[in-house]
Amino acid sequence: MQIQFYIVATPIGNLGDISYRAVDVLKQVDYIACEDTRVTRILAEKYGFKAKLFDCHKFNEKERSEKIISLIDEGSSVALVSDAGTPGISDPGSVLIKELYKRNIKITSVPGACAVATFLSLIPRDTEEFAFIGFIPRTKKQQSDILNKYRHTNCVFYDSPNRLMETLKNIKEIFGNDTKIAVARELTKVFEEVKMDSVEKIIDYYENNPLKGEIVAMIFADNKNCTRDSELIQKINILKEQGFSQKDISKILSSLYGENKNKIYKLAMN
Predict the structure, then answer these.
(1) What totals of helices (H) and strands (E) does the chain contain, helices first?
(2) For the chain, which ranges sit under pLDDT 50?
């Protein structure tokens, strides 16, 4: 079956990071579906893409899916690009791709830049394991829920420069001053910057330095509390076997070990 639809990764900053294959594909296709045609036009002018551009973003992806399927049914080839990086990774694409699979349309991906992979290659870690949660939720409650879920795993997320300080302060309140964190901005660009330190020191740094550009960050796994939680889980299981309720277990272990009652209750639930 002939390939009719391409998912094409584009540079996350430095335009020189586009692959030879991506350039070849974008020169050959009839249409390019873009997150923002103004952004893609800069790339098209640099590399000589002649394909017709049209927008396909999170607000019209369902509608554009029908247009793309119609173009493919007519025999045209289409590529999907986002403003930066790989479509479908915290960018539009998943709705469209689901529709294409339903129609049995041949799809392939042209790999390339991805901010998560670029960021992780710069960060020394004790393990390859990590959790990527996309753009971090905005409210403190939502952040607390998802970050606690992954507190024992290196947790990677995107954030905007105008919200990052509030996020960092929430992390400090949730996990404490000494929580280790890494923050990168402007990856692959002239003013690329990567900072690693305690969340308290990272906050101090950005209070005196401007925050601009795309942000990728990681909270390092909380390994020191992992053993403690394992011990609590063992005690929870013993009390469960003796018929104690989750509520009683949280009261007993909180009194005996000074742990947060809600934390023990959540461990008992899981």
Answers:
(1) 11, 10
(2) none
List the strands of the sheet with 52-55, edge to edge.
52-55, 31-34, 78-81, 5-8, 107-110
Distance CA 11, CA 33 (A): 16
Q: Given the DSSP bridges, would you call strands 107-110 and 5-8 parallel, antiparallel or unpaired?
A: parallel
- Which residue type, as a one-letter code, is found at position 44? A
In contact, 64 and 56? CB cutoff 8 Å: yes
Query: How far is residue 113's CA from residue 119's CA, in Å, rounded to a whole number?
Result: 11
Pair of tokens at residue 16:
């020189």
φ, ψ of residue 97 in degrees (nearest 5): -65, -35
pLDDT digits (tens, 9 = 90+) for 186-211: 999 999 999 999 999 999 999 999 88
Check residue 235 and give its pLDDT.
84
Say whether 56 sits in a helix, a strand or coil. Answer: coil
Three-class SS state of 170: helix
Q: What pLDDT is recorded for position 21?
A: 97
The pTM assigned to this predicted structure is: 0.80
